[in-house]
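EI: anyone free to look at a 260-residue chain?
SC: sure, send it
EI:
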Amino acid sequence: MAEDKDRLHVLQVTDCHLLPDPKTTLLGVCTHASLSAVLETACAERTPDALLATGDLADQPGADTYELFLSTVRAFYTGPMLCVPGNHDDGAGFEAALPTADLTVDGWRLAGVDTHVDGEVGGNVSGDELERLRAVLTEWPSNVLVAGHHSPLEFGCPWLDRHRIDNGDDLLSILVATDANAYVFGHIHQQRDLAVDGGVPVLGSPSTCFQFARDTPGFALDDAKPGYRWLTLGADGSVESRVGRVEAFELNLDPTDRPG
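SC: here you go
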């Protein structure tokens, strides 16, 4: 690590919703431009030691879109990266195109969990995936950060709460039983810093493009700017985090703008 030898600095980006044509807009936002602005802003603050990309990286999944994601990231950052799929992603295509293997970086294990189901908006973790994660966390009993796409918890936004992991309690029980240090996720296009009994932080992060309004019964956009989350991981297992925004990015939100 370049700085803070006893601390790992992990950048999380999520819900990029890229389209094959980088100039295309979605809900009034050029999602490629907003991702580029997020990466430029975050990487100007410091060089990440690792990057987590937690799903919905494509709005129209395909090899071209995933290559666009990779090339955009690599223009700003060339280090270790872990990607997990979201509901807008294509599972097989995602795994073929992107780095999905767990990372071990400076005494920390960064473990992905697949919460997406092809063709479904909501999340589920298969029995095989739960057992795989349990084995990973048992093998690496300390300093583990787990990353997925969906929330395992309700958080007070009814239309998004319906999309949570339907067997989220099973995931949470594994995280608590194995003393995972935190779970980070996307999907909700807003910041939520939650926790479960047992003290495991459950951290939802803003999108690199448009945000959803908080605590609304149905779909609504918010004028908060594109965001990202820094996670600072200590050798003692501590997890500190903060959300950053690209305040200079101009938003022209348009709920009717839905290409394709």
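EI: The longest helix spans residues 31-45.
SC: 👍
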